[in-house]
Design goal:
mainly alpha, two-stranded antiparallel sheet, 80% helix, globular
């Protein structure tokens, strides 16, 4: 058991380090192209911080552990809004921009509902995965073409590199760390689940999803410390969007996903949709377009209640 736990810890640390390298490279490249900050949050940062989930899900599916792949995505989406956003709100007040209800939240919620629809038959086929990827491309085109370019502010806190060769080196080493870390994490998680006699879903929903959400927490805290709230909220919404459209989509294209633990269908997916829907009243009440520490406490309460229900 100790060896398996060390594999999980080592895998998470390696994934986080690799994700951070990719994140810095991605934001550096975006800044060179002067991409607006809300677009960076919803696309570049979101995709970079979602890479651990992508690598873990693909490896899990290929090695025959579909619940680890799906549970990782669903659990990570719940952790992003319940744990990460809730924790961030304990330290700062977030002023939410109009893009939250005009595009960012609707896109994420539509993707969540679409995942619910596709997963009802107990599997996600390659055709459904292709549909998710196509929707991702369409949403990215919308974000890149219709967002206000005057919204650009260079995120120097996430990038001090200027040259393309240095960015390339970060991408190479980041990819190596992500690949190695995912192998350790998947092997460790499966080993712990086997020795404890619990399902892969439980390990994925708890340990794996929280671990792969750490890059989102780190990116959000850095953004908040630099008063870049748009990147923080945009990153979390965008990460959830990418988790569904890119990770589930790409993974199911490579290997169709079949649900083994029906709790994913009967409980987890509804919690994911419910916590996403909860953002609307929190954003608009009691003060419109702002979120406070009280909202953070509510999100954290929902998250820990979900974890307690999962474990017991």
């Amino acid at each position: 058991m100790l060896i398996e736990i060390l594999k999980i810890v080592g895998g998470l640390i390696t994934l986080i380090f690799g994700g951070d390298l990719i994140l810095r490279a991605a934001v550096a490249a975006s800044n060179k192209f002067k991409i607006p900050k809300i677009v960076i949050g919803m696309t570049v940062v979101s995709f970079a911080t979602s890479l651990p989930e992508l690598i873990v899900s693909i490896r899990s599916a290929l090695e025959g552990y579909p619940d680890l792949a799906l549970g990782n995505v669903v659990g990570s989406n719940i952790a992003n809004l319940g744990l990460v956003l809730g924790f961030v709100l304990l330290f700062t007040r977030i002023e939410v921009s109009k893009s939250f209800y005009q595009s960012d939240w609707p896109m994420m919620f539509i993707a969540s509902i679409l995942l619910w629809v596709f997963i009802q038959n107990g599997s996600i086929t390659a055709i459904e995965g292709f549909a998710l990827v196509i929707l991702l491309v369409l949403m990215l085109v919308y974000l890149l073409r219709l967002k206000d370019k005057s919204d650009f502010i260079a995120t120097d806190d996430l990038n001090t590199l200027k040259s393309w060769p240095k960015i390339g080196v970060l991408v190479i080493f980041g990819t190596i760390f992500l690949t190695f870390g995912s192998e350790l994490l998947v092997n460790g998680a499966v080993g712990v689940a086997s020795q404890l006699g619990v399902s892969e879903r439980i390990i994925a929903i708890t340990v794996v999803s929280v671990g792969t959400s750490i890059p989102e927490l780190a990116a959000s805290l850095v953004a908040i410390s630099k008063k870049e709230n748009a990147i923080s909220i945009g990153n979390l919404l965008g990460s959830n969007l990418f988790n569904i459209l890119a990770i589930v989509g790409i993974t199911s294209l490579i290997h169709p996903l079949t649900v083994a633990d029906n709790t994913l269908l009967s409980f987890d997916i509804y919690v994911m949709i419910g916590i996403a829907a909860l953002l609307i009243p929190l954003v608009f009440m009691p003060k419109r377009m702002e979120m406070y520490w009280r909202d953070g406490l509510m999100l954290l309460a929902v998250y820990f209640l979900f974890i307690a229900t999962t474990l017991y």
